[in-house]
Amino acid sequence: MSPQPIRRLLVANRGEIAARILRTARARGISTAIVRHPDEEGGLAPRLADACLTINGATPVAAYLDVAEIVRVAREWGADAVHPGYGFLSENARLARGLAEAGIRFVGPTPEVIELMGDKIRARNFVVERGFPVAPSAVEADDPATFARRALAVGLPILIKPAAGGGGKGMRIVRDAAVLETELATARREGERYFGDGRLFVERYVERPRHIEVQVLGDSHGNVVHFGERECSVQRRFQKIIEETPSPALTPQKRADICEAAAGIARAAGYVGAGTVEFIYGAGGEFYFLEMNTRLQVEHPVTEMVTGFDLVAEQLRVCEGEALGYAQSAITTQGHSIELRICAEDPAQGFVPATGTIHLLREASGPGVRVDSGVHQGQRVGSDFDPLLSKLIVHGRDRREAIARARQALRDTALLGVTTNTAYLDRVLAHPLFAAGDYSTAFLDEQSAVLSGKDEVQPLDLLMAAAALSDRQLVDAASSVPAIYAAMGGWRN
Amino acid sequence: MKKILAIDGEQYACTLTRTPGSLRLQAGERSFDCALDALGDGRYRVRAGDARREALIAQHGDQVWIHLDGRTHTIQRINPLDLLAASGRGGADSALSPMPGTILTVQVKVGETVKSGQVLLTMESMKLEVTITAPHDGEIAEVLCAPGQSVPVKATLVRFAAKAEATS
Contact B59/A475 with Cβ under 8 angstroms? Predict the structure, then answer.
């Protein structure tokens, strides 16, 4: 079949990723539309799209999760393809099927592969059967009555995960058998709330593991390639905040092993589109399949920075039916890239989400600096959505240069009016263990005393001066000559 | 006129007075001439004594954000008169929302006696579930929220009955 170009693309997402996808679509000459709930204010993506389509729902999040609503607006606008971004319906097979029934393409893999990889238990079994490594585990559905006992038999510490989950939601580490029941109950509630599915499984928790993932891409002609790994171990509450490539942990041989395992899994699944295979990497160099994300990742830009590929453009080409047109050997990497997630949150208060209005916004720029932003000055940041505001991505000839550029870019970033994690991110980058590349997913927790250390308020005099002199009341009070002297001045001399 | 500047949470009482040709800021034992020139677009040149720097400043009401030397500082300007007005409440205390979000469950009733650490309610914000516990033993005087309700940061969620004054 000859390639069918995409002419009208609906981006069923919001925030920075919607803006990111729109930029590539526009550069390819595609007409674009974005969705939006009536309660949403501002946002960069609606300014970049040719059309902004209203989606209805009891809450904004509910609207973005409503398959029928997305299909309806896509059909009404005359979309010939829908890009789901990440999160929301990006790994929802019902959306892919609903769109197919309406004759609209879904920018992603087939519904069958989404379902396979979306069910963490089936995905695990699939990977084990094909000879790829997974961690010891117990599955609730195998025999719910004995689940707690089987969970303990995996060997503490264990990690509880929702069967339908992803992105760290509902995950719990259990080190003490006494709290197992309570933690299972909490994880089940969260699973039901976020994924509409309370089924759980547990697996052996690898202490001080690294989280390393591999970008893969397949076309509809049977070609699958990988774009190298991303190191995603800097996490708080199982959510990544800094990612980099290449991983400082891997030897060339390990890198080849893990990347080939990822490409092998994608090939076995007949994978079409961009996807990510995530692994847990132990201190001894052992690695286990964790899950496969059948979508674009938040951290995809670091891969783009070192390979020069536009992964969104590749997704669109594959969706149009084009063959990749290049071999694995054509994908080479250059230098080092780091991504920093700038979030509306207060690290000093346990990373609680922050809200407010962005009264002033200055974004970083300079050699090797890229900003994928979803916000603009004047925008209100509420609590309806994820706290990610924008991503700062840097590239350097080597890791040391990338870190230096990242730190300068953070200093050049000003987002006044909403509390963000920029100073915290800088403390992480400045940490000797980060500089040495010697960290695990436990890094932020283990170093929390150092990292939460409040910066000394410097230079205090300048801050006081700026705060006092920008206060009209204070300045007016100081400037007005007391009334009695003014009155006297009127007629004496 | 005196104002308290809470700079990243640290409080400094400041006064500003006019001196020939300048403004003088006094905060505790510090005292220095200062100036602020707008350069447009939120950019300013700040001077304090001999130090000069460019800064980005945004303000909203009594809240000021200053980006200086690569760091953003949050400053709350407090009029001491407002503090006096707020201190009159005394006696009872309350549990506040640590973040904006939605109440999931309320697990206590008015009149109920709770122990320190007991779960009062749970709330959710940006997909995080947070448990609000009693800061001390006490009796619940008022429950000011209900499941499903959206609350801003620092909203009073539960009020405790005033503790009996210790009598000697």
Answer: no
- CA nearest neighbour of A282 among A133, A424, A167, A156: A133
CA A223 vs. chain centroid, Å, equals 27
By Cβ distance, the residue of B16, B71, B130 closest to A475 is B16
The 10s digit of each residue's pLDDT in A33-51 is 999 999 998 999 999 999 9
Nearest-angstrom CA–CA distance, A330 and A67: 38
* pTM reported for the whole predicted model: 0.82
Q: Check: CB of residue A288 under 8 Å from CB of residue A135.
A: yes
- From the CB of residue B130, how many other CB atoms can be counted at a distance below 10 Å? 16
What is the spatial distance between Cα B17 and Cα B21, in angstroms, rounded to a whole number? 11
d(CA A51, CA A48): 9
DSSP A419: -
- Render pLDDT for B84-113 as a digit per residue (tens, 0 to 9): 444 333 345 788 877 677 899 999 999 999
Of A354, A355, A467, the CB nearest to B66: A467
Is residue B110 within 8 angstroms of chain A, CB to CB?
no
Lowest mean per-residue pLDDT among A3-7, A40-44, B158-162: B158-162
At residue A1 the predicted structure's pLDDT band, cuts being 50, 70 and 90, is low
Residue A127 three-state SS: helix
For chain B, give the number of residues.
168
Domains of chain B: 2-81 (3.30.700.30), 90-160 (2.40.50.100)
Q: Which residue has the tokens 């990977």?
A: A127
Question: Strand pairing of A239-245 and A224-236?
Answer: antiparallel
